[in-house]
Structures are given as C-alpha cells and as structure tokens.
C-alpha cells in the first residue's frame, strides 16, 4: 500500500519489460533525455544523475514504446487483495482506494477471521495494543461496509470464489453465539 496515493487515479511512474535483460525496468527523464535506470546502488545513481525530473506517466511511456515498436506490457489491475497488516496499519489508505471507485477490493476470509480474533487482544500489553486497536477499527469499518452493501468490496473464499462482502461475524453478548450480517 505504499503506492496507495497513486491508486486513486493520479499518475504512477511506469515500468516496462526489457526484452534484452528479461526484467521489468522503470523509465525516467534524465536531463531531457530518456534513460533506463540501472540496478546500480542508490548512491551511485544519485551521483551520476543529480537532476532527475519526474518519471514518465503511463501515457508518455506508451507513446514512447509505440514509436520504438517495442513490446509493452501495461498492467491495469481491477482487483486488489488486502492483507491483515494493511488493515491494521493502513486503514485510511484502503478507504481512500475504495473511495476512488477504480478498484474492487478483495478481502480473504482468513484476513477477516484474523482481524476479528485480533480485536479481542489485550489493551494492557503495549506490544499488542496497536494491533488490537487497528483490528478493532478495521472490523468496525468492515461491519459498516457490510451494512451498506458496498459494491466494490468482496470476500475472497479459501477456494478462490469472489462473493459480495456479506458476512462479518460478531460475538453476541454473554451466550457467545455468532451473528452474521447478510
């Protein structure tokens, strides 16, 4: 989710597949000329090109590659699979991604179960306090999204089936019975 600020529709620097090296590379403008960044250490790259301007946008890279008649692989993801740690540490980024309405977010059932279990952690233990609080916020938000029947939020089953988010279990009072929202 480090690139979540780009997933909301803003320009993301592009990568292309170099047939010569058999690897993906990032294209950038360097002193007015196009140049591929090598895998040299960061300090060496910085010393060689201190005036690096903004990376190419997807459209600029497409145009350049079409002129060169090189094969270009453009990745346009539709689905994003979110991890437990992302919900705990980056809930606001997930919310921002979902608000842009560009992606469908998949939440594995395992992640939901982990979040539900983590929300019952010990608040007195400083080591787990952050995870517990993050899990509580994530579960609260997921329950809200379930009630709203968000059309861009899905559950991903263990067998790989994609279902509209429909079940977020919750312990109901003293009897310990589980309640599911549908």
Q: Under the CATH scheme, which class of the largest domain?
A: Alpha Beta
- Percent in helix: 25-40%
Mean pLDDT: 73
Overall number of strands:
10
Tell me the overall shape.
elongated
Outline the biggest β-sheet: 4 strands, antiparallel
Q: In the CATH scheme, what's the topology name of the largest domain?
A: Rossmann fold
Class inferred from helices and paired strands: alpha+beta
Q: What is the CATH homology-level superfamily of the largest domain?
A: 5'-nuclease
Report the C-alpha radius of gyration, rounded. 22 Å
Q: H/E series, N to C?
A: EEEHEHEHHEHHEEEE
How many distinct helices?
A: 6
What is the CA–CA distance across the termini?
A: 29 Å
As residue ranges, the low-confidence spans are 29-50, 172-182
Proportion of residues in extended strands? 15-25%
What would you say the CATH architecture of the largest domain is? Answer: 3-Layer(aba) Sandwich
Please characterize this protein's 3D structure.
By secondary structure, this protein is an alpha+beta fold. It has 2 domains: 15-68, no CATH class; 79-179, Rossmann fold (3-Layer(aba) Sandwich), CATH 3.40.50. 36% of the residues lie in helices and 23% in strands. The chain is built from 6 helices and 10 strands; from the N terminus they run E-E-E-H-E-H-E-H-H-E-H-H-E-E-E-E. It has helices at 42-48, 58-68, 84-89, 91-99, 109-118, 126-148; strands at residues 15-18, 23-30, 33-36, 52-55, 79-81, 104-108, 153-156, 162-164, 170-172, 177-179. The strands form 3 sheets. Strands 1, 2, 3 and 4 form a 4-stranded antiparallel sheet that branches. A hairpin with a 2-residue loop joins strand 2 and strand 3. Helix 5 crosses helix 6. It is elongated and about 60 Å long. The model is unreliable at 29-50 and 172-182 (pLDDT under 50).
């Amino acid at each position: 989710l480090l690139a979540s600020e780009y997933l909301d529709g803003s320009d993301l620097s592009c990568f292309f597949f170099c047939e010569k090296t058999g690897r993906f590379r990032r294209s950038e403008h360097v002193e007015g000329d196009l140049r591929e960044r090598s895998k040299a250490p960061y300090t060496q790259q910085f010393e060689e090109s201190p005036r690096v301007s903004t990376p190419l946008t997807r459209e600029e890279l497409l145009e350049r590659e079409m002129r060169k008649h090189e094969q270009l692989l453009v990745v346009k993801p539709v689905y994003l699979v979110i991890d437990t740690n992302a919900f705990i540490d980056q809930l606001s980024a997930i919310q921002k991604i979902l608000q842009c309405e560009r992606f469908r977010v998949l939440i594995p059932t395992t992640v939901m179960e982990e979040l539900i279990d983590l929300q019952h952690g010990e608040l007195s233990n400083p080591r787990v306090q952050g995870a517990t609080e993050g899990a509580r916020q994530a579960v609260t938000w997921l329950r809200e999204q379930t009630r709203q029947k968000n059309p861009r939020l899905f559950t991903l089953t263990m067998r790989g089936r994609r279902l509209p988010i429909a079940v977020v279990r919750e312990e109901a009072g003293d009897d310990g019975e589980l309640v599911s929202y549908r």
